[in-house]
Amino acid sequence: MEVRFAMHPSQFKTLTTEQIRKEFLIENLFEYGKINMVYTHVDRVIVGGAVPTVEVLVLEDGKEIGAQYFLERREIGIINIGGKGYVVADGQKFELDKKDGLYVGMSTKKLEFGSDDPSNPAKFYFVSTPAHKQYLTEKIDIKQTEATHLGSLSESNERTIYKYIHPDGVKSCQLVMGMTILEPNNVWNTMPCHLHDRRMEVYFYFDMPDDAVVFHFMGEPGETRHIIVRNEQAVISPSWSIHSGVGTKSYTFVWAMAGENQSYSDVNPVSMKDLR
């Protein structure tokens, strides 16, 4: 588990391209037969990827969280972006097709990841946050999630937002999680952009061809920076930063938030004229 620390926006302005990438970009989440994780001190969120092949992978605790087991004081949201697979939570098995999700509540002692076909393994992307109460573990079928269609082709941002974990759906302590799928020939997300001072966010981009990239914009509205993001990479976005992107081709991304509240609409809009 890699550990990263929080940063003040005044320090962010001084960073080079490589320093920004090192602090905020997560490049190597998925390795066959492994679980990789990044612990960020921004709201103590853990971002991870698991790719089980022949052997089942078990999510272990670590000294970084100081717990007897991983979910002793945490909750976790999981979305499969690969082949068919399954997650076993304290002996209960959940089958997950591509883009299906799973919420696992606090106090779950054992979490295992498996693939139906090792030659086409599942890829489990997950985000974990601290928790104070146990909520029910629940599978999330993308076809049964709340879906909101937004944007237009003329604005290059026609997309559908699927809410997986939120107060009106699968409930959690503080984790809010979902997926946005851009229509073909659309490339912009979260523009016009906004801030939410009370929540951080993690963006995970996937379903991108090898020759495509996303320019993910971050920083304070009056002094922005960008990170080049490739397929199956994630970006940590602190609460003081915008989080918007444009791709060379259409793509899909998972968004996950944690912080003071779970209100999806609790945002501070940023006027286009204020962007620099």
Automatic annotation (TrEMBL):
Pfam families: KduI (PF04962)
Gene Ontology BP terms: D-galacturonate catabolic process; D-glucuronate catabolic process; pectin catabolic process
InterPro entries linked: KduI, KduI/IolB_isomerase, KduI_N, RmlC-like_jellyroll, RmlC_Cupin_sf
Pathway: Glycan metabolism; pectin degradation; 2-dehydro-3-deoxy-D-gluconate from pectin: step 4/5
Details of cofactor binding: Binds 1 zinc ion per subunit.
Enzyme Commission identifier(s): 5.3.1.17
Highest rank taxon of the organism: Bacteria
Enzyme class label: isomerase
Binding-site residues for Zn(2+), renumbered to this chain: 194, 196, 201, 243
One MF annotation (Gene Ontology) recorded for this entry: 4-deoxy-L-threo-5-hexosulose-uronate ketol-isomerase activity
Keyword field: Isomerase, Metal-binding, Zinc
Catalytic activity, as annotated: 5-dehydro-4-deoxy-D-glucuronate = 3-deoxy-D-glycero-2,5-hexodiulosonate
Cofactor dependency: Zn(2+)
PANTHER family: 4-DEOXY-L-THREO-5-HEXOSULOSE-URONATE KETOL-ISOMERASE
Role of this protein: Catalyzes the isomerization of 5-dehydro-4-deoxy-D-glucuronate to 3-deoxy-D-glycero-2,5-hexodiulosonate.
Family under the similarity heading: Belongs to the KduI family.
Protein name from the UniProt record: 4-deoxy-L-threo-5-hexosulose-uronate ketol-isomerase
Source species of the chain: Caldicellulosiruptor saccharolyticus (strain ATCC 43494 / DSM 8903 / Tp8T 6331)
